[in-house]
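Please supply some protein, with fold tokens.
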Amino acid sequence: MSHGTANPAVATVTEPLTMVDAINLALAHEMAADERVVVLGEDVGVDGGVFRVTKGLQERFGKARVVDTPLAEDAIVGAGLGLSLGGMRPVCEIQFSGFLHQAFAQMQSHAGRMRSRTRGQRGLHFVVRSPSGGGIKALEHHSESEEMLYVHTPGIKVVMPSGPRTAYGLLRASIREGDPVLFLEPKGVYRAFREPVLPDEVLELGKARVVKPGKDLTLVTYGAMLRTSVGAVEEAEAKLSASIEVIDLLTLAPYDADLVRASVEKTGRCVVVHEAVKSGGLGAEISARLNEECFWSLRAPVARVTGWDIPYPLYAREKAFLPDAERIVAAIVATLTAE
């Protein structure tokens, strides 16, 4: 199932959890295992976060390790950087990824440059978590898919899980990682479904997973779009009697180019699906790299199904902005039938 599972599956699993509960459990396990792990952000303590992701952590670990901060994203991330340089392992929460812009200078000018600035002598155990994407009819600035701003920023690893199990395993890995990690949580699936979690599982950053094997076409996606894409793949396979491989990237920077390339060399066709805008999106990078590295294996142009090149719309038009099964099926059909 998983190209990127670092630990072998253990015998025991949790009861089915939502992504919110899985992230909470990952934080609790890492905080219990290492007293250097601290959580800071707006309302993360008393209220347990705007989505209740950090619920109960302050009661368990105390106010010194779960810190309610002022409403100041730049200060939250800056404080996290200072804590990391002082030997702590901070996990900063930004309430919505649309407000990460206020902290972009800290991420780009300092977090992403620290290893280079110190000539490789100093990394950062430093995680910034934030709910990302749409699907919940939120207000302006509260539904954004701007992951490529950070994928384009050298020195920062960008992670986006697709469900409870991957969120748990990836967050534990991110907290242990020795370089800055931006951990984007697709809030459209925060409570959309449940699945068991392996309590000892820590997933390897930079590794994608094959969710479904296939031989006729490769579909690459991540985050909330995985569930939409899997449904579309089932519909397209029934319509065309085709076999479609589905890859869940999990880590966006660095993404698992080797797995994607190997799959496309096998299938000869590729569709990339993501919620972010088309121009300059991850689909553009994947398409360019496939063109460079396995051009002679491609039997059709790489297709992209994405959000539109507009500011994220208000909730009344959100559904029209998000890729849906109809658009994905159409891209699959066009790519499979191209000569």
